[in-house]
Amino acid sequence: MMTGRMVVTRPTNPHIARMKSLSFTQSRSRRLTRWRGLLMVILLAIPAFLSVSAARAEPIAEAIDRIGGNVLFLRHALAPGFGDPPQFAIDDCATQRNLNDAGRAQARAIGAYMKRHDIVPDTILSSQWCRCQDTARDMAIGPFSTHIGLNSFFNGHVDRGHTLAALRAHMATIGPDRLDLMVTHQVVISAITGIAPQSGGMVVYNSHTGEAVSVPLSID
Fold it and tell me: What is this structure's pTM?
């Protein structure tokens, strides 16, 4: 008489397979959700990052921060010609070399640029020459006054030594926490900073250390 073990087999529960499949699908879904969330955070952060980078890249502010600048020298905007006519009179614009239409447009564009980037001088000074005053006026960023230390000695209309002495005396009063915009001439900027900017060109200057940086502006 033969006896044998009874083998009991249990049928596969179809619900278990479905549950395993569902668990795998849910796990993958959670991972995808986490990745999507991370990607969304990155995408949302990009504009802010680019904005901060752009702000840091603004050349005037960057130069001011880098050298502790407290003076912005600005050469007057485009004024065709060379020097001033022989009949020059400081109180008569008709006897001087003046801004043309392109120069006035350039001055307005520089002013708009400074407003757009929140560059606000504490004081705005100008040479007594009409082309400098017109540049300061057309920039429309605030009231200005004239200063003899910014006048042009190129044609000998004023004394070079007296002019630069007056300018240096004024700059000695400008604290490190201030910012003066000075609209003047190439000869004055070159004498102080050693840099000869083009018309409408700007130089950031530290009046206490003598450091200077020429600043290119994108004003298109």
Answer: 0.75
